[in-house]
Each structure stands twice: as C-alpha cells, then as structure tokens.
Amino acid sequence: EESKTRGVSVSGTAVGYAPVDTIIWTITLEAVGKDLIEVKDVSDQQVKNILDAFKKRAIGAEDVEVGVIRIQDVKLGEGSASSSIQKPYTVTRVVILRQKEFRMFSDILNMLVKDRPGRFKYELVSSRKDAVAKESIVKATQAAKDKAAAIVAVAGGRLGKTLSLSEYPPEGFKVLDNNIAVDINSPALSVESERISVSVFATFDIE
Asked: What pTM value is reported for the model?
C-alpha cells in the first residue's frame, strides 16, 4: 500500500526598503511654427540651452538623454477659411535627466520654473530596488521555512525536504495585500524609501 506524503504549506513575506537615490526629470520641449526648418532650428536651440544649463551644474553627459525629434502638423480648427492656409508644425523633443545629487534639486527646479524650457515632471527612484528585492526573497524563504518548522513541531512532527517553492501563489489561491502577514519587516533607513514586499509560497514534507 502506497503511503501518502504528508506536507505543510506556508507562505513567507519579507518587506524591505530601497532608499531613494536618484531623481528622474522628464522635460518636454516644444517649438511651433509654419516653417519646418525654422521650427527645427528653434528646437535645436532649446536642446542646446538646456544641455548648457546642465553642463554649468557639472551634470555629466552620461546622466542626460535626448530623445528623437518628433514632428507633427497642428490641425486647424473647424471652419477654417481656406485649406490653402499653411499649417503650423510642432517639433517635440524629450530630455531625460538622472539627478544623483539631491542637494541640486532646488537649483534644477528653480531653473526649470524660471527659464520655462518646457513642461517637466520628476520621479523619485532607487537604484537598489532590484538588490533589495533579491535580499527580501531570501528572507521570505527563510521565514517560510521557520514558520513551517514551528507548525510541524507543535504537531509533534519534524520538518522534511522542500516539496515546492514559488514566488507565485498556488492555483486558485487569491492573495490580498491587506491580508498578508509580514514575517520580516526591515527598518526604513531613509525618509524617502521605496517599500518592497516579497512573498514566497512553499510546501514541506513532514517526517
């Protein structure tokens, strides 16, 4: 008679915090006019002006990216007098700045507000996000194993080998973020940090 494998299934969740260390600025430059050559020249000057402003602030070329030039006709409103009217062109370019010196934030913000080179937005990101996620998954796996061992010990058994281990919940198992118990919660070492939560789902043999 075949003996059925006895197992215990658990989850392990670890939360880590990746300190924000980079500000990503997205600046959209636009030039509009009826002569495409002149409009492109204006666009080129806009790019030069903002790159010069970055250079004065000792921002390296490796932290700046200029997107491809985009050209489109500006549609005339309905009821225009004549289709022979020359349509204006819009030339758009996007400049991305990766700012790693937080002390320069106010200076760059003031420059963008004062000089008004174009529309802009910024985002706070962490270069350690992937590293913290990898560290957290190891902690979550250990937490799952420790939890399973404690449950089995209370039941009078001993934890055996791992039968399954996955970052994804079992089929048909719904996970709600507000219902996940955190097993390991690392402290946030910075006021501006990105919270990273990692869960694993494991089944262990019971000996």
From this structure: 0.68
